[in-house]
Amino acid sequence: MHGNGAADAGFWAPLGRGGLSSWIFSTDHKRIGLLYLALILAMFAAATTIGVVLRLKLMTPGNTLLGPQTYNALFTLHGVIMIFLVVIPSIPASFGNIIMPLQIGANDVSFPRLNLFSWWLYVFGAVLALVSIFTGSGAPDTGWTFYVPFSERTTTNVNVAVLAVFVLGFSSILTGLNFITTIHRLRAPGLTWNRLPLFVWSLYATAWIQVLATPILGITVLLIFAERVLHLGLFDPGRGGDPLLYQHLFWIYSHPAVYIMILPAMGVVSEIIPVFSRKPIFGYKMIAFSSLAIAFAGSLVWAHHMFTSGMSDLAVLVFSFLTFVVAIPSAIKVFNWLSTLYKGSISVEPPLLYTLGFVFMFSVGGLTGLVLGSAGTDIHVHDTYFVVAHFHYVIFGGTGLGLFAALHYWFPKVFGRGYDARRATWAFWLSFAGMNVLYMPMFVMGLQGMPRRYYDYLPQFAPLQLISTIGSWVLVAGLALMFGNLVAGAFHGRRAGANPWGAATLEWTLASPPPHHDFPQTPVVERGPYDFTGVSADE
Amino acid sequence: MLHAHTNTGGHVLGNRFLVGVWAALMACTVLTVAVARVDLGFLNVVAAMAVATVKALLVILFFMHLRFENSLLRWMVFIAFVILGICIGFTFFDLAWRP
Amino acid sequence: MSETHKDYDASKMGMWLFLFTEILLFGGLFLLYAAYRHRYAAAFHEAGRALDVVLGGANTVVLITSSLFVAMAITALQQGRKVRCQWFLALTILMALVFLVNKYFEWTAKFQHGVYPGSEHLAALPQGQALFYSLYFAMTGLHGIHVLLGASLLGVVMAFVARDKVRRDDYVLLENAGLYWHLVDLVWIYLFPLFYLIS
Fold first, then answer.
1. Where in A269-348 does DSSP place strands (E)?
2. Most buried residue, A20, A447, A468, B38, by CB count within 10 Å?
């Protein structure tokens, strides 16, 4: 990539007149994936900074550091940026774009220009989100959930913010549409559905959720806009409206959205574990099926976010029951991953470390999800720090670590270079420790009654709040070390061969980095994705 | 000639067939307006939705060509409507059982 | 240079997937309608009297006929009858304009009676009636936007047909535009009885 001459640079080599425009107007899925990755990581850095500031404010009780209005705006921004600009696109838009076509032996996605348009929509959405912070009455203070009636009445910049969400949703929809078509139409000869890498299966299931659920978010945010601008009054109790209907509409998308977030990360885990145990994955069909099952079942449970809202007892019962059902396919994945590791020839490289971290964090988060899904216990912990801890464990400990695992796994393929494994290992342990010190106390505080989104708190919570904040610093140190290490590797790392990990999926048959046009000839697939016979690592 | 094939393999819907579908749609429209004038209580909604669904099927299956598409596409359409049905239907677990 | 191998089935699949998003988009509003009709059946029945069945019915005929025309446009092009195709497309767009003109008259008549989102007249109505009208404006409004979009899309395709960018041996753009147009018709097929045949 840098320094070793254009011949080694693969798809990084200048195209045409080169320069920025050959990147931001490229229809090459690899370049688009990297454009996404760059922006997603930038948004991640911004939202993490906000998170650090929030934790600073909460370090001690009282009116510290910043005022309540600013605090409300900050946690809203943190949520909106993290969810819509970071986590939802995170793996699909970056590694999905770069790696998925390679894994199916294709030379691009079905609609390359639509793919580029998706990225520009993302850019536009990001700009709108920024505009909402710095114009009008400032950033929204409603929380990322924009609940009515407050979102209709607050004078902050909700209009622009929900338009940003609409645009970002459209970007997500188009990516999903592209991936579904690609996976159906562009698989190489011999690549049957039974030989599809599990990462591709997970992206397929994710894409269906993106296509079918996101439009509901679209209409919901349009309705907020219409309420504010046109005064439709559709959720106004004074005119007979029902604010709970807003919550139904909101969560009909936003619950499946969390499966958009987690499924690709699970796909990454399913790729990495077999390679680093040198064993075929245990229960391939069940893992593939479980991705589809999670996508479907996940669209049946949204009202578990509404147990205390005032909806009917029957709804509470039904949605609680279904929430337990959706836990089953996730558990199947965890059992199958562990069974794959069992008696495997384990090599503890950074990708596997992050993967194992995922399994732990996701298990904690998933089990605490059952506490929330059980309506009786939810009454006690709803809207407390328990919820905050739960979703950070599954989203950050889950998808976050999954993204970092993907970064460390596919890094040599994308950048053509390696990174320092020891520093990566240190970074992992720092981040992992930091995450747990940051979020574990929140479970306790939640059980003890600490409400979420509160600007201040009672003195009894001070010790755990302090510990949590310290955890955030350890975490940030780990993240800084991780990214610093990867950047160093991108510029100075040892040149990587085609298959440094000895994996059996198609992307590892190409040079690192792959050439502009991916496969010189369409590959013919005759083996499964985790069949390592005759496959060995470089060197 | 009801269905022909072009030289590129595309399936052609003959004009007489299309007009026939149009006529069926017109008949359904007349029917639904007529039924709406009779007070059947709750059944009015059922009848209106049933006729609308017949019309929708005529449009989807014939005008939109789904009758002649491969089963993958037809399953996809089915799933999309199932999801819509679930979204509206499950919300009624709440709405229809409020105290 | 990225390959531009045309995959007809992929284009069609992609278009259908996009239509699913439109169905779900409107679906959210249908959910609201179902909820409020369930709760305020009598109020909806009462409020629905203000809507003109003749205009609504006429618009239904107009849209169904427009769907016929666009289907015939496709058949014409498949048979190599380019001019005929363009005529049918023009007729489809004409039907779309007729629809929008009807809508314009309907809405302005409502506005003149003080029936518009956020009006005091609406606020003073019995509970539930204002919701009917709000849903009416929201759903027919969103639908009207799609009529405009669909008609524009058909206009673009008409220009492509003229320039042979859409031809007998490559007409997937026309088919996809037709699919979009039929969706617009489909939504109205449900809007008509729900708003105009409720009394």
1. none
2. A468
**What is the maximum span of chain C, computed from C-alpha positions, in angstroms?**
64
Task: State which amino acid sits at residue A325.
Answer: V
H-helix segments, chain B: 15-36, 43-58, 71-95
Q: Which residues of A touch B96 (CB under 8 A)?
A: 312
Chain B CA closest to residue A252: B87
What is the fold, at CATH topology level, of the domain defined by A31-509? Cytochrome C Oxidase; Chain A (1.20.210)
For the domain covering C8-196, report its CATH number.
Answer: 1.20.120.80
Give chain B's length. Answer: 99
Domain boundary assignment for chain C: 8-196
**How confident is the model at residue C2, as a pLDDT?**
38
Question: pTM for the full model?
Answer: 0.96
- Distance, CA of A438 to CA of A392 (rounded, Å): 10
Per-residue confidence band for B4, with pLDDT thresholds at 50, 70 and 90: low
Alpha-carbon gap: C134 to the closest alpha carbon of chain B (Å): 19
A489: region left, alpha or beta (phi > 0 left; psi from -120 to 50 alpha): alpha
List chain A domain ranges.
31-509
Average pLDDT over residues B30-51: 92
C130 contacts A211? CB cut-off 8 A: no
Query: Between the CA of residue A378 and those of A253, A446, B98, what are the distances in Å?
Result: 21, 11, 20
Q: Which of A47-51, A135-139, C64-68 has the lowest mean pLDDT?
A: A135-139
- The answer for C 22-61 residues in CB contact with B (under 8 A) is 23-24, 27-28, 30-31, 34-35, 37-39, 53, 57, 60-61
Q: Do C28 and A216 touch (CB under 8 A)?
A: yes
- Provide the shortest C-alpha distance from residue A218 to chain C (in Å): 7
Relative to beta strand B3-5, strand B11-13 is antiparallel
Q: Do A240 and C9 touch (CB under 8 A)?
A: no
Can you give the pLDDT at residue A357? 98
Q: Label residue A239 by pLDDT band (50, 70, 90).
A: confident
pLDDT at A2 over 50: no
3-state secondary structure of B13: strand
Residue C181 has pLDDT above 50, yes or no: yes
Helices and strands counted in chain A (H then E): 18, 0
Q: Is the dihedral of CA A205, A210, A211, A217 positive or negative?
A: positive
- Reported ipTM: the value is 0.95
Give the integer Cα–Cα distance in Å for C158 and C166: 9
Contact of C177 with C16, CB cutoff 8 Å: no
CA-to-CA distance for C13 and A147, rounded, in angstroms? 36
The verdict on C111 touching A (C-beta cutoff 8 Å) is no
Over range B40-48, report the average pLDDT: 89
Which residues partner with B11 through β-bridges?
B5
